Amino acid sequence: MATVKLALVQFESALMDVAANVRRGLEFVEQASRQGADLIVFPELCITGYNTDVIGDRYHELAEDTGGPTVQAFREAARAHNINIVLGMALKLDEGGTANGAVIIDRTGAVAGTYSKVHLWEDERKYFEPGDVCSPYELDFGKLGVLICYDAGFPEAARTLALQGAKLIVTPSAFSIEDKHRWDIYYPARALENTCFVAGINGVGGDLRLFGNNKLANPKGELIVSGHLNEEDMQVLEINLDEADECSKLTPYLRDLRMDTYGYQA
Predict the structure, then answer these.
(1) What is the 3-state secondary structure (H, E, C) of the chain?
(2) Catalytic center residues
(3) How many other CB atoms are found less than 10 A from the CB of residue 95?
(4) Bridge partners of residue 198, in order along the sequence
(5) What is the pLDDT of residues 75-134, one digit of tens each?
(6) Closest by Cα among 88, 8, 77 to 40
(7) Are strands 210-211 and 204-205 parallel, antiparallel or unpaired?
(8) Residue 58 to residues 49, 52, 63, 64, 174: CA-CA distances in angstroms?
(9) Residue 183: exposed, middle, or buried by beta-carbon count in 10 A (0-12, 13-18, 19+)?
(10) By the 8 A CB rule, do 162 and 254 touch?
């Protein structure tokens, strides 16, 4: 059995207070470790907070690369607490510019990879460079897919990860209450059509009214987590990744996909 214990954090960021958000995030890492979690996932841009109207060009100033103090602090925490981490933050790119990104850290404290949000939402394109790669990351429990927020609205993104063997896809997000109808649909739909586990991890609070309500759907498209509304929280639960293989035998969407018809590449 390929069991993984997840910790999904509904995080309330203090806008532009990186030090406070890092301290709070490290507290959640310690709490998740005490509960035996193998992987903890934070929301989109949780280190700076999410609000392009307020933060704007300061995202460039607040962005860090993987050698910066924020990633170093979480690398040390991952190693000390024996836990994998997905951290949403503004990332300085090697080629210049800033990404709305995520850093994937394994339980040894090594950076397993970084992800840059591919599909930028509204004013994000004023401040961030879009990514152009959807590939899973190798962790000790298997291949992990990472998307960010609006990416989940594009079935091609999740499918590309599933076709490359990801049985778990996590989606750090910053959804406001006006868009909750999409939030409620994305994760069961992406899980069902790809016969894998798909999670949405949302921020809380602020002028944009981020509402938490973390979601996790199983490979049948059934919701097995639907977190509290409008409060900081963390859901910890164990899943069995072998369910993805069992479901794909019963409903073989990936096997029967006519990639020749669509000219699809993964």
Answers:
(1) CCEEEEEEEECCCCCCCHHHHHHHHHHHHHHHHHCCCCEEECCCCCCCCCCHHHHCCHHHHHCECCCCHHHHHHHHHHHHHCCEEEEEEEEECCCCCEEEEEEEECCCCCEEEEEECCCCCCCHHHHCCCCCCCCCEEECCEEEEECCHHHHHCHHHHHHHHHCCCCEEEEEECCEHHHHHHHHHHHHHHHHHHCCEEEEEECEECCCCEEECCEEECCCCCEEEECCECCCEEEEEEEECHHHHHHHHHCCHHHHCCHHHHCCCC
(2) 44, 117, 149
(3) 6
(4) 169, 217
(5) 999 999 999 999 999 999 988 899 999 999 999 999 999 999 999 999 999 999 999 999
(6) 8
(7) antiparallel
(8) 11, 9, 8, 12, 18
(9) buried
(10) yes
Contacts with 108 (C-beta within 8 Å, 6 or more apart), sequence order: 78, 79
- Global model pTM greater than 0.90: yes
Residue pLDDT, tens place only, 119-161: 999 999 999 999 999 999 999 999 999 999 999 999 999 999 9
d(CA 11, CA 234): 8
Task: Please write the tens of the pLDDT for every residue from 26-67.
Answer: 999 999 999 999 999 999 999 999 999 999 999 999 999 999
Whose tokens are 């990633």? That residue is: 71
69-81 and 18-34 are packed helices; what angle lies between their axes, rounded to 10 degrees? 10
In whole angstroms, give the CA distance from residue 191 to residue 250.
14
